[in-house]
From TrEMBL:
Protein name as catalogued: Alkaline/neutral invertase
Protein purpose: Invertase that cleaves sucrose into glucose and fructose.
Signal peptide boundaries: none
Organism: Brassica cretica
This protein's record includes keyword Hydrolase: yes
InterPro entries noted in UniProt: 6-hairpin_glycosidase_sf (IPR008928), 6hp_glycosidase-like_sf (IPR012341), Glyco_hydro_100 (IPR024746)
Keywords: Carbohydrate metabolism, Glycosidase, Hydrolase
Amino acid sequence: MSAIHLLRKLSRRPPSRLHRNLLSSTFSMDLPPDLARTTLIRPFSNRPTIFNNTHRLIPSCFRQLNLLPNWVSEKKKSISVSLREFSTSVVETNTSDKAFERVVGLNPNPLVIERIHNGEETIGESVSGGEIIGNKIEKSDETLVREESEAEKEAWRILEDAVVRYCGSPVGTVAANDPGDKLPLNYDQVFIRDFVPSALAFLLKGEGEIVRNFLLHTLQLQSWEKTVDCYSPGQGLMPASFKVRTVTLDENTTEEVLDPDFGESAIGRVAPVDSGLWWIILLRAYGKLTGDFSLQERIDVQTGVKLIMNLCLADGFDMFPTLLVTDGSCMIDRRMGIHGHPLEIQSLFYSALRCSREMLSVNDSSNNLVRAINNRLSALSFHIREYYWVDIRKINEIYRYKTEEYSTDATNKFNIYPEQIPPWLMDWIPEQGGYLLGNLQPAHMDFRFFTLGNFWSVVSSLSTPKQNEAILNLIEAKWDDIIGNMPLKICYPALEYDDWRIITGSDPKNTPWSYHNSGSWPTLLWQFTLACMKMGRPELAEKALALAEKRLMADRWPEYYDTRSGKFIGKQSRLYQTWTVAGFLTSKLLLANPEMASKLFWEEDYELLDICVCGLSKSGRKKCSRVAAKTQILVR
Ligand code: GLC
């Protein structure tokens, strides 16, 4: 069979059975016959199982993304707009009104952010239109010009050079573009998680195309059949990364294909659990920042969201509402003792649930899923707020815990032995402030401070308003440990000696105070900035950003820094790392545009706090654990 035949055959591959069932059960009532023919029920042939190494490549002839006629989104618009209004929290009502106006085209003066060129290079940024741009412009026809620093100008050049094109269109950014790197491994790929800060930088600059393309192309990869040693992971799985490859069809013809990595080539075969969660978060951000909600209303996009949610909400053996994952399933994608219920995954899961609740069209076929989402949101926030929270008072409580309690209303529910409290923590925990634990399992608390999980809990309101404040208080009190010479430590403290040997498996890349083992990652600046802005403390983010700005350009935008205080460029750190560059730019843009930043975080949702489905609260022999909980979690 010639390559061209192979590609033709591949292009007719069917979506999986699950995908097909979901599509038809969800939309059977409003699909016109022609739509069903073009998008859903193509004349598929059998799976090309014999082409094991090539069948996962996506031929460009399959990249037809705009398959849905306009009337579909028009028809759904009125329903989904009202649903979006309904599902946003009380505090967000004003923002949502504006969103509504944008969708139905009532805003005569949209917000425009443009970059100003002086012929050769960009010298500044102009913001015009809108109602209030940050707190600097009060009248809608004024224009603010902010001059870009040298570092920003260079950062934009690097970011633009990192753009990956597929059939001529921008679809993402490579992880790193280090000209001196002779062995880029997979750093020449587009990583889903790495692209998020790039996407936000582009969106905040007013460029939506690359983000839209990214969302639609990765969506196509989601439904692709994937196998790791003959085992197929769940259908909703999003790849960790993808690469654009050129394949030769015959002597004169080549064709570009997208080649995803679902973990089957990744070091350690880690599962990219966070990819789908980030994809959903980015989809919402795209709508919020561009006002183009038609993307999230598309049938194929709605199905993508449902597949991810179904995968996350599938029944298993779990006893907790937290998501159970293997080690290395997020930004820390190597063995680091974060298997089980790591905080980073829980906070991303929580925001993905909130985004889905906001974006999913409610109809007969999605009712059950939406109900499951609401229940999980409520149970998850209770569990994290109640059991993951530590401050000086809670540590003292754990220090005096009784163990081996057998009852439903035990104080020490997880049977934590007080000897587990690490000696460093007793000295380290400040009087003011607290944080969420890194992980919680039976008889196991991981007391390390994990930065991304804590910041994203603030951003998504997984933690209570008081806990959010306390997390920032802790950062302030422990500035030298978490920020030091370069923001921000990925976690604190490092695993040393036997802990390093046993928990990392003697990983030479993750030696103490390096890389994932308490290295400092400048990309985390954008999440920190968002958390600080949400809590009305932008000056903290500005201070950290100024530190980074002093060094990043001179150091050639490293991936991470090493040592306790983040003084040295990481020993195996890539240079010109795209998410370092993009995290820096996104932080700058967020600080300059608070109105835009506010669209990216969530306020407390009081509706969720009232949901309790356990049915035990009324009376009876057993008590609802939420009611029985000693801690006051509903902090208003
Ligand atoms: C490293 C990081 C991972 C990142 C990848 C590409 O593996 O641990 O989070 O996505 O590099 O930058």
